[in-house]
Amino acid sequence: MSRDPRYDILFEPVQIGPVTAKNRFYQVPHCNGGGYRDPSAAAEMRRVKSEGGWGVIFTEQTEMHHTSEIAPYIELRLWDDEDIPFVAKMADAAHEHGALAGTELTYAGINGPNLYTKEVPLAPTAMPIRTYTADPVNARAMTKKDIRDLRRWHRNACLRAKTAGFDLISLYAAHGHGIFQHFLSTATNHRSDEYGGSLENRARLLREVIEECKDAVGDSCGIVLRLSLHETLGELGFANSEVRDLVEMHAELPDMWDLAHGTWSECSGPSRFSDEASQQELVEGIKALTPKPVVGVGRFTSPDVMAKQIRTGILDMIGCARPSIADPFIPLKIDQGRVEDIRECIGCNICITGDMTMSSGRCTQNPTFMEEWRKGWHPEKFEARGESETLLVVGAGPAGLEAARVAGMRGYQVVLAEAGTELGGRVARECKLPGLATWGRVADYRQYQLSQMANVDIYFENELSADDILEFGFENVVLATGSCWRADGVSRHHVLPMPNDDSLPVLTPDDLMDGKMPSGKVVLFDDDHYYMGGVIAELLVENGCQVTLITPSAYVSAWSANTLEQASVHARLVKLGVTIVLNRALKSIEAGQAVSECVYSGGEEIMAADAVVMVASRVGNDSVWSELSAREDEWQANGIRSIRLIGDAESPAPIAWATYAGHRYARELDQPDIGDALPFRRELTHIKND
Ligand code: ADP
Ligand code: SF4
């Protein structure tokens, strides 16, 4: 197959200062939760993208000086020469298949609490640190000497980046995370000297630093400015009109403009709240103000949308973070005429939770993300099957679908049996809930891939019992039978079923997804804390209910702070007229009313209710598994070598956990037993003896 000529435009080279990108695919800086703690894992993740055909590959943000760091978040560091080998590994990885390697130098300023280095943070104007955790620390106002120091530190960091082998150096002035934005914004810059006041003054530091960086490394490195598109702070801040003035004023200053929305949550908008190319309005027209190339993001997964962005003169390069995580091979697949093989990002922002929880990145669509080095998982390559030949996958949810896909790729004879009439399990159901349509891609991608494999057969309306499974005699059986929401309120607040006199209807998300809808006054108890509570509240409002959402947490959908959605969820529920009750738990359910209690004082309140919806927790559907386990002595006689329980059936969790479980199961099928050994590689801090 060959490339569709409509997409030729995406494969034109682009000059960025002294260097040239081989095509228009630009992987913008993105975090991964591994950073300086897991340098080889992060480097291998970038190397795979190089293999996947990206023209430009950036690292995550790189702290360029020890006086500004964002612990506990784990990014990269280029504080001094000792860090060079770590980041050099990333540059080498990007180069391996001909991409330009970029690093995003960050001086976090008002966004850096310096919890690790214990240095006093520096900012244009003295004010409290602005972090997600509202750390009780102030930044002090920079003196002229501090500004001179900062300029020198940038110059030195550029020299280190050059030594490490980078072709592109991006200066971070977006998302509220970089000091240049803090100087540009009237919200954070109240100075009265030549670095404050007019836009020209607020841009002075930026101009000085870019000129000095170019002077230091401009012979071989392109200098990119990653600029906020709009701070969305009303009268205050750095608004889109000023962004345009700045670009016009300094049209030739950086070698490239990388335009990103004001806050990270807006820029990485989840599909629940923003569409593909959602920043277009803010970007449109900026390219005409500068002769330098412009790159922007927008969760681009469609090559048609990408080509249109270039053809209509909005962008010169297609910036991608999440789409490149979900499918590191997008450019190559477009180039090879395999567009239908693209594993499209679903915009769930689970990848961001790796960074927010300082753990290791995960992706719902691409379970190999950040496992490329740790486990040696390549997103497109699979080991041939082991000594057994057949696999029965029971359940076609995300776990079962992914297990079938990977086992199919490995060459097993796979039968996928599904009790229902469609593929996707919970995804097929949840994608019909408000705002979650894009999540259906989890099933769509796998459905198409399975349809292309002659060695995978799918049977619908096949609810298998333990007897059926024993009778079939497949060598390997994997049960991915999913989970159910429980109605008894057991979760975190209640560890035993909640008192309930059975006089009120109590429904679960499963009931609602089955079309059973309450009416009138509905009390929704959310002790799950991720997206489901908020989504169900929306669904209830859509169906005419008067909704009160009660949660023991201080926040609605608290865990979705990790997917950058929490504020949007709260705002949407307020707009929909949902009554939000925080820090209270449902205590008991009685005739015509629900009783709640304050989680701190225990004080009770009574609410009139026609129904209760319980978004508490889920239990795995493991009855077939339990029966098969009890009959293990019959396995061998039936030709069965292994039976495993995976995904939500084993342990309910977000969808990404299920695709990971399915992937891991199929990768490890017939692999030697490693006993008590660690199932992944890791790197340890080395001990210094001097
Ligand atoms: P996961 O997220 O772990 O993949 P899901 O709940 O999304 O779990 O999917 C489980 C799937 O398994 C559902 O589509 C369900 O219809 C199917 N299923 C459950 N029990 C059986 C069974 N005994 N035989 C066949 N399919 C089953
Ligand atoms: Fe996209 Fe979700 Fe994967 Fe992130 S985790 S890249 S948002 S599919």
Descriptive report:
- There is one protein chain.
- The chain is of the alpha/beta class.
- It has three domains: 5-356, Aldolase class I (TIM Barrel); 390-482 and 621-668, NAD(P)-binding Rossmann-like Domain (Rossmann fold), CATH 3.40.50; 487-619, 3-Layer(bba) Sandwich (FAD/NAD(P)-binding domain).
- Helices cover 29% and strands 18% of the residues.
- It has an eight-stranded parallel barrel, surrounded by five helices. It has a five-stranded parallel beta sheet with strand order 17-16-15-18-29, with helices on both faces.
- It is globular and about 75 Å long.
- The structure holds adenosine-5'-diphosphate and iron/sulfur cluster.
- Adenosine-5'-diphosphate binds at residues 394-400, 417-420, 425-426, 462-464, 480-483, 621, 624, 647-649, 658.
Q: In oligomeric terms, what are we looking at?
A: single chain
What gyration radius follows from the Cα positions, in whole Å?
Answer: 27 Å
Number-wise, the strands total: 29
Beta-sheet strand percentage?
15-25%
Rough outline? globular
Protein structure class: alpha/beta
CATH superfamily of the largest domain: Aldolase class I
Into which percent range does the helicity of residues fall?
A: 25-40%
> How many distinct helices?
22
CATH-defined architecture of the largest domain: Alpha-Beta Barrel
The count of domains is 3
Mean pLDDT: 96
CATH class of the largest domain: Alpha Beta
The unique ligands bound to this protein are: adenosine-5'-diphosphate, iron/sulfur cluster
